[in-house]
Hints:
FN3_dom; mainly beta; Immunoglobulin-like; transmembrane helix; FN3_sf; receptor; glycoprotein
Amino acid sequence: MARPITRWLLSILVTSVSAAAADPPAPPSDLECFRPCDETSCHVDIQCTWDPKSDPKIPTNYTLHWEPAHNHDSHVKGGTSLDGRIPREDFSGGGELRVWVEAVNQNGSNKSQPVVFNVEGITKPPPPKDITAEPEPLEFLWNTSCIESSGRCHIRYRTKGETDWPKFEDEVHSTYAVEEPDFFTVYEFQVRCDCGTGLMSDWSKIHSVRSSESDPVGEVDLWRDCGISPLSSDCFLTWKSLSDSQARGFIRGYNLTVFYSNGSELQMSTAEPNRQYVHEIVEQLCSNGTTKWFLNATLKDVSSVSIIAYSSKGATKESFLNISTTGKEENVLKVNLEMNKENLSVSWDPPSDVSKLKEYVVQYKQAGSPPGREFDWIRVKKSQNGTFFKGQFQEYKAYQVSVFKVLNSKKVLHLFTEIGYSRQKALLAVPSFKVETLTETEVTLHWKAIPLSEQTARIWCYEIGYKWLDTQKVFNVNASNDHQPFTLRDLSPGDYEVWMRAITEFGREANATETFKINHQQDMYAFVQDQSKHVH
């Protein structure tokens, strides 16, 4: 049986739903009446249209009503219509009509706001015809469909991809030129006109034209992917296609010059894909709406790279990248990294001295992904100390976020690297270790951290512990000290079980264990390995 409070809530819910279902129809809106015209004549009847506004799930009937706007007007008479049409016999001469729409459903009725018009002033021509456009200078042209004299026209235009129409001009006639249009940009436009009297036509269908080309501006955004080792010299070159606002035309290709440490250099162009070397190492990648290029050849012996983009109108400034990166700068203060599946944001305290600073570069790399994949970067003005990426960041995958300083001298300085996750879960992998040396009182362990690509959660530290008789000792090891030996000291004879596990936000993760035995009396030190025994 429902409790009293439950019955009361259900009563409110049923009453609310019933009240909503019993509402009369909404009043119709945007009532417009006109006499449609073609290129030779205008229809004798008046046609009216409106926005119903009512719930389409509830059957609703609409009736058009009209009456003389003035009681003494003998040119018009009242009437009703179910199809939105006012027949010619109900009006003549220059009379005025008052018109409204009534909506009726099973729950009641409602009326629109009335409109009043002179029956001779509502002729509506068809949209303009013969609409064309010229790209240089960007100009729209059209002819009206007026039978006699043409009147004024309206034009609206936008760049392709916009949903609104931010540009609108009235009082134009048969042509309109756009002042200072963006280069090599697709513009969409519509035109409507009247014929000196009466109403404006409907908007024409959308027409489009691409504006003329110009020489490209700016520089190519050139960077390198060094995997999860920001200071590595074994990197791969990557760059982003010019944006439309930079390209200002069709980019025919990118010319690269690779400078090697021994003084030699190699030139190549993406416009020559049939050259075997270029075809084998240059790839195009698309991610997050941006086209990137990727040089599938290591930069291990490369000192620097330069690149330009060119079109039929010219070329960009040369972009230069110094491949070598110096070590981490000291005294970098607070770092804040936040991630979810759609966004990655990072901010940092700026260095104290920015006099030689040109800009920052912020990059992310998904651990374990191939060169050039799951990788992106952003250039940040030196006056800012944070940025964000939008993307599709996989759950339970480690992302390495690094920030670099680029100096005015082109030198690149690594500031810091942080690990982030869009979502974490308990680890499936365990660290590995083995007993390397064994003496009377000491055992040295060599261990390997769980690979970053297998870390489904951020590892705060590793825990190494051992059990001997009823004694148990535990030590914490920095997670960044990978491949470092760890020595257990002051040991006594007996059987030992030693374990290692990661510590995450989920607590102590699964163990990796081994056993060994120390026997002083026989001057023997035996080691027995336990085959991958994992304990939760």
